[in-house]
Amino acid sequence: MRHLMSPLDFTTEELDKLFDLADEIEKNPEKYAHACEDKILATCFYEPSTRTRLSFESAMIRLGGRVIGFSDAGSSSAAKGESVSDTIRIISCYADICAMRHPKEGAPMVAAEKSGIPVINAGDGGHQHPTQTLTDLLTIRSLHGSLHNFTIGLCGDLKFGRTVHSLINALVRYEGIRFIFISPEELRVPDYITDMLREKGISYEEVIRLDDVMPQLNMLYMTRVQKERFFNEEDYVRLKDFYILDSSKMKLARNDMLVLHPLPRVNEISVDVDDDPRAAYFRQAQYGVYVRMALILTLLEINV
Amino acid sequence: MLNVGKIEEGFVLDHIKAGRSLSLYEHLQLDKLDCTVAIIKNARSSKMGKKDILKVECDIDTLNLDILAFLDQSITVNVIKNGKIVEKKELVLPRQIKNVIKCHNPRCITSIEQGLPHIFVLSDPGKAVYRCKYCEEKYSENA
């Protein structure tokens, strides 16, 4: 039995297979419409996340399966003090696969250790968000044509943004990737990531101004400055509008640069960018459903 | 001067920082062994001024000393057989450490989940960097 805790749990060859399956699902959705007819997905969300939860639920329903779960800790037995270990043992009796989001880092790993069913980490605190990463990789592979040889700019909250950490960890396994980290000093990418890049000899640059590096980028990954990651309101208000992508900044970019965003956005991408053909963030959400469908099939070992 | 007799088989852990021997006694779980242990505190040392020494009389295969490499790499481990030093043991950093140090990350699941062991994994043997198995936070003594 396999779980998904980090994008690194799958080799690049296994990811290729997963993405091939996602491509196949995109082309022939009818073929997979009944693949999980007798299966149940449990979505155990200890903190609110409408988008990721609905993406998982949509994926399972499109595969013909059913969904149970809870969408915040208050409506679960966690409010009564039940441990993650106990909860997953119970959920294992009710469902065939579980997607878990938890504010505490490492909680899905604790669940996986005690679980009788595959567990998917649907985001754990500021740590990992592997299915977002799979979504990002599938989007890049589909729209850029390859997961090799490009310069990617990651912009915004690089300190607490788990989508960014997961994506970097996944991309370092491909050839010819160059990273440009664009953030305020307070929200720089953590040391353990830059240490890892240096050890692997991977090229990266840390800058403060987005404008300066726009022309170099093949893709720009924007992130939201998340209020819930801050300990006080004042810091949040001071930093949230630091980096806003608008049509004037887009004029500095290459004609084929892709703009990605894990969504939801607040105001870091101006709505006037939405109609730019380089804006890929809404298509990204669609790829998120395909890749989750492929992941559910893979972890349940269902061949269609 | 206090004299402690020599041992026939076991280990002499020398050059322990003065005052640390009891903590090593606990980490090595010597209380669980039915053998003779001498704890020598504040012995005179030309190199260190003062030092602690632990003498453990036991079968040399019964004790896993790897944790010492994490706790204090300056400790000298002498392996004793037939009353003589037969080897100065090379300490190797353990791949994993369980319940020796605690994760200080307030966002880590170990901060709320009852009964969960604190496990750290060696992520960089060259720099002796350990990270929490669950949240991957780097261990820092000063955190």
Indicate the topology.
The complex is a heterodimer of chains A (304) and B (143).
Chain A: H1 12-27, E1 40-45, H2 50-62, E2 66-70, H3 84-94, E3 97-102, H4 107-114, E4 119-124, H5 130-144, E5 150-155, H6 162-171, E6 177-182, H7 191-200, E7 204-207, H8 210-213, E8 219-222, H9 233-239, H10 247-250, E9 258-260, H11 281-299
Parallel strand pairs in A: 1-2, 1-3, 3-4, 5-6, 5-8, 6-7, 8-9
Helix pairs in contact in A: 1-5, 1-11, 2-11, 3-4, 5-6, 5-11
Chain B: E1 10-17, H1 21-27, E2 36-45, E3 49-57, H2 66-71, E4 76-81, E5 84-88, E6 96-98, E7 119-124, E8 129-132
Antiparallel strand pairs in B: 1-3, 1-4, 2-3, 4-5, 6-7, 7-8
Please describe the structure with a list of short key phrases separated by commas or semicolons:
heterodimer; A: 304 residues; alpha/beta; Rossmann fold; 2 domains; 5-stranded parallel β-sheet; 4-stranded parallel β-sheet; 15% strand; globular; B: 143 residues; mainly beta; Alpha-Beta Plaits; 3-stranded antiparallel β-sheet; 9% helix
State the fourth-level CATH superfamily of the largest domain in chain B. Aspartate carbamoyltransferase regulatory subunit, N-terminal domain
Give the strand order of the largest sheet of chain A, numbering strands 1, 2, ... along the chain: 7-6-5-8-9
Structural classification of chain A: alpha/beta
Q: Compute the gyration radius of chain A: what is it?
A: 19 Å
Q: Biggest sheet of chain B: strands, sense, closure?
A: 5 strands, antiparallel
Termini separation of chain A: 19 Å
| CATH topology descriptor of the largest domain in chain A | Rossmann fold
β-strand number of chain B? 8
> Could you please say which CATH topology of the largest domain in chain B applies here?
Alpha-Beta Plaits
| Count of all domains of chain A | 2
User: First CA to last CA of chain B: what distance?
Assistant: 40 Å
Classified by CATH, the class of the largest domain in chain B is: Alpha Beta
Integer average pLDDT of chain A: 92
What is the CATH-assigned architecture of the largest domain in chain B? 2-Layer Sandwich
CATH class wording of the largest domain in chain A: Alpha Beta
Known CATH architecture of the largest domain in chain A: 3-Layer(aba) Sandwich
Order of helices and strands of chain B: EHEEHEEEEE
Instruction: State the fourth-level CATH superfamily of the largest domain in chain A.
Output: Aspartate/ornithine carbamoyltransferase
Structural class of chain B: mainly beta
Query: Which pair of chains has the greatest number of interface residues, and how are they split between the two chains?
Result: A-B, 19 and 20 residues
